[in-house]
């Protein structure tokens, strides 16, 4: 299956977008310390943009590996 690689705009993690992922789909950054929701805005070339999270989603999130 063909995979297009994009970079997370936040952390530069490389992400593989499978063929069936189309414009408008949401993907989540593969970097567990990032986990940013991304919306596919273009294919060939593939592009993604950061989806603003609702405040309630991330307010209690604390990465355990920091501090
Ligand atoms: Zn990321």
CATH class: Mainly Beta
Low-pLDDT stretches: none
Q: What overall geometry do the principal axes of the alpha carbons give?
A: globular
Largest sheet: 3 strands, antiparallel
Over the alpha carbons, how many angstroms does the gyration radius reach?
13 Å
Helical fraction: under 10%
How many beta-strand runs?
5
Q: How many domains would you count in the coordinates? A: 1
- Nearest-integer average pLDDT: 86
Sheet-strand content, in percent, reads 25-35%
- The SSE string, one letter per element, is EEEEEH
The ligands found in this model are: zinc ion
Strand order of the largest sheet: 3-4-5
End-to-end span in angstroms?
A: 41 Å
Please give the CATH architecture. Answer: Single Sheet
Task: Write down the CATH topology.
Answer: Rubrerythrin, domain 2
Number of helices: 1
Class derived from helix and strand content:
mainly beta
Description of the structure:
The mean pLDDT is 86. A hairpin with a 6-residue loop joins strand 1 (3-7) and strand 2 (14-18). A three-stranded antiparallel β-sheet has the order 3-4-5, with no helix packed on it. A two-stranded antiparallel ribbon has the order 1-2. Helix content is 6%, strand content 34%. The protein is built from one helix and five strands, in the order βββββα. The chain is globular. With 67 residues, the protein is mainly beta. It has a single domain (3-53), classed as Rubrerythrin, domain 2. The longest helix has 4 residues, at 55-58. Bound molecules: zinc ion (ZN). The site of zinc ion has 8 residues, from loops.
